[in-house]
Amino acid sequence: MWGLQPSEAVLYYVHPTLSGSLSRTDSAGEGSTGCEMAGHSKWAGIKHKKALVDAQRGKLFTKVIREMTMAARIRGGDPEANPRLRLAMAKARDANMPKENIEKAIKRGTGELPGVSYEEMVLEGYGPGGVAVLVEALTDSKNRTTAELRSLFTRHGGNIAGAGSVSWQFQKKGSVLVSAKLIDEERLMGFVLDAGAEDIMRDGDAYSITTAPQALERVKQALAANRLTWESTELTLVASSLVRVDDPTQAKQLLALLDELHDHDDVQHVFANFDIPDAILAEHAAA
């Protein structure tokens, strides 16, 4: 997770914010409980940097190609009628993937070109400290991928759990990351809330905007109308509650697990409901 082309939106593991809508008075601190800020960290910025390393070493291309192929297989090769494919193509373009590669990936999905047949799978489990972990993967062998991911959990002090054991703790949301250098928070809040944003957080040198899934496109259009570009945009899963991990040993073990899960070739997305002190996150980011 150490960097990426602007707008790169491959999901890494996401440190979530607590659910709930944000009003203009909340943002100014009036009537706010502060729990959203307490539960929030700099993880969005860190995972954004990680994605750049992925792009540099080629892992990003592999994962985005699989996503485009699967999206085209499920709902066809027309991005106008296939939101999942449209988002995957945007990720590919932001990563500077050649147009020919994009077209081939889509044609493999629609059956116009031969290729490996991938299946979607979701694996749920717990990491050190009782943190809920949800892994989404695309694989040509569920048995092989399950065995490999189970081994990673075990090696880092976690365990696999049954289907539905942790997924209930997450909600699908839209997420947009905008550089804080481009606009002040009050002005940004003024038009993105009108467009359907639910929450805005400051993540280091960027604003993290959370939306309902159906409002993601409207928020992006509002940003474009105000001549603002975004660093990343994605559909993600946000936890309804967080598990605090203060013990440095457990925290580092958890982060090592999430790193290895993310690096697995078959894994597309990893989500976890952890809350780790900023000092430990900063140390991990610098490693």
Concise summary:
The chain is an alpha+beta fold and 287 residues long.
The tally of beta strands, per DSSP, is 10
In terms of DSSP E residues, the strand content is: 15-25%
Largest beta-sheet characterization: 4 strands, antiparallel
Q: Indicate the structural class.
A: alpha+beta
Radius of gyration: 19 Å
| Secondary-structure element order, N to C | HHHHHHEEHEEHEEHEEHEEH
Strand order of the largest sheet: 3-1-2-9
| Percent helix range | 40-55%
Domain unit count: 1
Distance between the termini: 11 Å
Provide the low-confidence segments as ranges. 1-42
If you had to describe this structure to a student in words, what would you say it looks like?
This protein is of the alpha+beta class and 287 residues long. It has one domain. Helices cover 43% and strands 21% of the residues. The protein contains 11 helices and 10 strands. The longest helix has 17 residues, at 59-75. Residues 1-42 have low confidence and may be disordered.
